[in-house]
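Regression report. Comparing outputs from two consecutive submissions.

Submission 1:
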Amino acid sequence: MIKNIFNSEVSKEIIDRINQLQPNQKAVWGKMNVAQMLAHLNIQYKAIYATENFKKPNPFMAFIMKVMVKPIVTGSKPFKKNGKTAPYFVVTSEKNFKEEKQKLIQNIETTQKNGVAVLLPRKTKSFGKLTEEQWNNMLYKHIDHHLCQFNV
């Protein structure tokens, strides 16, 4: 069972893991360095809260996203290592570790404080409306996956 990211203890546990990261920490798999990984995770929150910067997929891609990708992203199975990332979420430029880390912690704290009730009425551009379980799975699973990538 996936832990509930909206629970303050679980959010604190995730933040404690983030605080274990070091600027030069090496990934166990994947291409991103640790600062890029943090920036990559922040893009998810940007897509949730600043949707004007996130393009809605064309009708064909929207169908593919809802039918094929949504169950993977919002389901209970862990992500596979070296999985394909949507182009919008790819980070290749250098990022500031400290800034991205602070931003991610703030995003987690804000989301936990506001609770899932703030997210339930929202429609994601890629998946449409999500249930409480889907929001939780998507957020927790993604962060956990990348923290495991950096062995924390």
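Submission 2:
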Amino acid sequence: MKFLSVNKYRVLALLAAFVAIFLSANQALAQNDEPAIISVDTIFVTPLTVQPHSPHKATFYSAILPGLGQAYNKKYWKIPILYAGIGGVIYGLDFNTTNYKKYRRAYRDILIQDPSNKSYLAVLPPSLREDQVTEGGQYADWFQRALESRKKYYKKYRDLSYVGLALVYVLNLVDASVDAHFKTFDVSNDLSLHIEPTITPMYGGYNGMGVQVRFIF
């Protein structure tokens, strides 16, 4: 019986040691398998930004080169119209400038009466001769007034052509800027029109019937 008692204590001691070793190993494994905790502060998220459509860029591009702002706004169909307008104004400017210089030179020469400078002959009507429009001629005064009138006429429209060219340039800037503003203008899909009856208080305690129109957006 003494031998059996000694064996029992040994078995209990071995079991206790085995349990202690098992628990220690299990705890070590659990610590090794524990997932790492990452702080939210250590995560860097790059925000997805949408580059806004800039009216300033559209205006700046059109100021550098007319039509470039329209291309930035993706309104390509406006570019040929813009350049057709610019071309028309430049043609008018060139036409009026050329004629203004021609009649100014002719008017100057008819006043000076220099035999070596007779540019007025280029604008002389086919029905008249030189001696009829020079000093002492039958139509001399009329011809001088006609040349002066034509010179002022073409000078006026030459100046207006410059104004027109400036207006087309400014219109190009305004169009590019307005288009760029409306590019990001959001109109709600909930836009609706409501027509409904209404009661309007009137003088004397009476109520009037009517119809009201409401826009909801």
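Expected: both submissions complete independently.
Actual: both completed, but the second showed a warning that disappeared on reload.
Relevant detail on submission 2: Strands lie at 192-201, 207-216.
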